Amino acid sequence: MTEHTDQLVRHHLDTTNQFAQKLRHDPAAIGGARDAHVALQTSVGRTRDVASDQRVSLASASSGSTTDRATATSQSLEKEVQDLLDESAEIEKAVAEAAETLHVGEIKNDQVRDQIIKEIAASMKALEAVKTIQPPESRGAASRDILMKLQTKISQLTGQAATFSEQTINDLTAIGTRLGGEEQTTSSSSASSSTKVGSSFNSNSGYSGGSDGGGGGGGGGGAVHKPRLPVAIPPQPGSGVAINLPGGKQVMAPNETAAKAVRNALSQLGVPYVWGGTARGVGLDCSGLTMTSYQDAGLQLPRTAAQQTVGAEVPSIDQLLPGDLVVWSGHVAMVIGDGQMVEAGDPVQISKIRTTNAGQSFIGFYRPTG
Q1: Which residues contact 299 (CB under 8 A, 6 or more apart)?
Q2: Residue 325: what are its φ and ψ, rounded to 5°?
Q3: Among 105, 100, 115, which residue's Cα sits nearest to residue 175?
Q4: Which of 39, 78, 110, 333 has the fewest beta carbons closer than 10 A?
């Protein structure tokens, strides 16, 4: 029993240690880079001021086409210098934001790791107390119960660590994207309600990150990049497929694939939350539930929550249909109709549709089937 517990401890601490490695950084080096940009701005700013003074002196002391060309050249140089100063200031700001983001992510991960150690210590103490239970033959069941609760708690905590790690990476990506000036645009034709969504949307890879946290996992509310996809439209009359909800109400999905996915997801109600889990009937995380439910319906989704922004964007909550996905930076749920959604909390459960989730950034509503 002790050996089993030790293996469990090593495995889950290794997981949080892996996240710590991702968030590891050198504060001194980051501070040096920031200071270097401050020094550069000071030096280049002096150069700009000297050039400006010389241009003014030249213009006041002479005239003619040669002077005009010289002052124009000087103005062009001053503009280039100012652009360089602005760029350096943006880099300095981005470096500072990245450092703060990494620091916060590191603190959150350490807090989770400390909580895991506390849970293990409490469980070990409880296991010692089991040795005094009478009759002796009941000790095995008591020990197994303690270990199962410990494993469930550690899975929840590592799920939170995964959410923190993914959120930190998303925030860093957003900082880098903003610094690079990257933008996505959507043409009026692609945004048209008559646009047919191709299968290429099902391989959307606009996000990068680790595994998902569950419904209870927290995450920072940093900026995320929202993909602009064609807008989803209501299904044509007669294209819906009936779904019988657990409460007895019947709803209509936009197509058979979505209907099958909802039925598949509802069949997992009560299944425990397991970080990284894709084993139906055994253990699932949030994106594991949606991915496998759609996979069994014949549609392959990306693995992680923030990558499941595929198909078409649903513009408002009142236009949601069964099978649509509700996506945050580190969590995803599936709409089942009647104002409800199914999600892998602990266990898989039905909840009211919402746009908040433990401080994570809400990305939007998406219809994988277009």
Answers
A1: 202, 257, 261, 368, 369
A2: -110, 140
A3: 100
A4: 39
